[in-house]
From TrEMBL:
SUPFAM superfamilies: Immunoglobulin
Xref: Gene3D superfamilies: Immunoglobulins
Protein name stated in the entry: Semaphorin-2A-like
Domain Ig-like: start-end pairs: 1-81
InterPro entries noted in UniProt: Ig-like_dom, Ig-like_dom_sf, Ig-like_fold
Length: 125
């Protein structure tokens, strides 16, 4: 799994509980074999998943493992791609980055137009 700086990731731990509203208390998450403590950047979901909030550092890369009662249930290799944030140095790098930005902008513009059309349709009902 590849993350870009600033991205939030949700890692699933496929466990089931008798009561879907109760957290899976026996679930433990590890990052590179170190037990994760839950805080503002590492959140445990009620389904036992792990949310990595705002992945910004290479230190957040590594292997994340979910255990239930000492047994590994799921494992994720997380890579942080900092290349996307590097400033272009050569003309060809600049042109490639500019092309990427233009394509992304066109996607946003198209999605906005679709949203506006749906909003107009739903608003007329």
């Amino acid at each position: 799994m590849v993350a870009v700086p600033g991205q939030t990731l949700h890692l699933r731990c496929p466990v089931t509980s008798r009561d879907s509203l109760q957290p899976a208390l026996d679930v433990s998450w590890y990052h590179d074999d170190k037990l994760i403590t839950y805080d503002d950047l590492n959140l445990l979901t009620t389904a036992g998943g792990l949310v990595l909030v705002t992945v910004t550092h290479l230190q957040r890369a590594g292997v994340y493992r979910c255990e239930l009662s000492g047994q590994t249930v799921a494992s994720y290799a997380v890579l942080v791609n900092n290349d996307i944030c590097k400033v272009p140095v050569t003309e060809s790098q600049y042109q490639a980055k500019y092309s990427d930005w233009c394509q992304e902008f066109e996607t946003y513009r198209s999605n906005l137009a679709s949203w506006a059309k749906l909003r107009k349709t739903c608003g007329s009902r």
